[in-house]
Amino acid sequence: MIPYGRQCIEEDDIEAVVRVLRSDYLTTGPEVQKFEEEFAKYVGAKYAVAVSSGTAALHLAMIALGIGPGDRVVTSANTFVASANCALYVGAKPDFCDIELVGYNMDPEFLEENWKPDTKAVVAVDYAGQPANMPEIGRIARERGAYVVEDASHAVGSEFEWDGKRWKVGGHPWADLTTFSFHPVKTMTTGEGGMVATDDPILAEKIRKLRHHGIERDPQKWVNENIEKGPWYYEMQELGFNYRLTDIQCALGRSQLKKLDRFIERRQEIVLRYNEAFSGIAFVKTPKVADWLSVRNDYRIAWHLYSVGIDFDKVGVSRESLTLSLRRNGIGAQVLYIPVSEQNYLKNKDHGGRSMINMKRFYKSALSLPLYANLGEADLDRTIHVLKNEL
Ligand SMILES: *Cc1c(COP(=O)(O)O)cnc(C)c1O
């Protein structure tokens, strides 16, 4: 079965992992810092903190920003559940923002019109790898005293132009914290894993402490005077977690990062092939780039998903039967995402309670086709052929 996404692991990745397995440190060793430094450099951020998953990254982002009970956190309706759950982890109120029908990202106009004064953070999501309109989202949130977290789980390596400059996701000034995921379906992997990127030294340090039980190791920063101290001493200063990423995983991450640009180029090639193949088919919408990006003509989308919009009523085949027949042919199409605002658990805790009209429309039509760096030509051709045959 060809999945909708999967890892691309090569011999040098395996060697990098084996090298660490033979070394002194399996965790909290030198690979962690090296991975953080190389990743920060790649995305153009001053700091990067490696954590155990993209979900852990979002959780620590909320704590570091001081989000808690009574605060509202607005995220896109078109995302994985983790982007909303991070609000619940800290006792805050999740709320949802509808999407634009081009790019399927958070609609800044909707965000602004439905703003509530208790909103303390916006979690923007770069769906499929296409950057959300961060300059606009950043302006709206900051004018109202809220923080901006960018859930860039899909968008490592994406870039956009603004104010005559080219910015990388993770390295622009319109997000306070940017989170990444290295789950195997994402563009680069560490098995499980995540990263928080920021230019703010205080936030970076807070997150570094929180991923390790809130323990402070720097003697300059110890505050407990009533206890004997020595080389053994450490001080827990707040409630943290074990959200560390191992050296084994960081070695894999460093190796993957070296070839990330190649992975992205291959993904872009596949997207072009799909776009060409489906361009003439009635009632099928291939992914488009939002105006704010395309008018400047200088951007890079590190495509993570290839989601087509199919008007199933008009093409005369149901999504279920199309998905089933793709599966019979060994092609694992997916639907990404079920509106997160429609998950019963979250729906009952949704403090906005507005109907996500565009999101529901997109959901009815959405189908994600296989997209990953080592998707072979034969599998790509077969996917195109089977889909065309069914439509
Ligand atoms: C994958 C993903 C996450 C969660 O990342 P994990 O590493 O699986 O915890 C969060 N948000 C989005 C948009 C994702 O795609």
In what range is the share of β-strand residues?
Answer: 15-25%
Shape: globular
Mean pLDDT: 97
Q: Which strand order do you get reading across the main beta sheet?
A: 1-9-8-5-4-2-3
Main sheet record: 7 strands, mixed
Give the % helix: 25-40%
Helix and strand content put the structural class at: alpha/beta
Structural commentary:
- By secondary structure, this protein is of the alpha/beta class.
- The protein is built from 15 helices and 14 strands.
- The protein has helices at residues 11-21, 30-43, 54-64, 82-89, 108-113, 134-143, 201-210, 247-258, 260-278, 291-294, 312-315, 319-328, 344-347, 357-365, 377-390, and strands spanning 47-51, 72-76, 93-97, 119-125, 147-151, 159-162, 165-168, 177-181, 194-198, 215-216, 235-236, 284-285, 306-310, 366-369.
- The longest helix has 19 residues, at 260-278.
- The protein is globular, with a radius of gyration of 21 Å.
- The two termini are 21 Å apart.
- Pyridoxal-5'-phosphate binds at residues 53-55, 79-80, 82-83, 125, 151, 153-154, 181, 183, 194.
- Residues 53-55, 79-80, 82-83, 125, 151, 153-154, 181, 183, 194 line the site of pyridoxal-5'-phosphate (PLP).
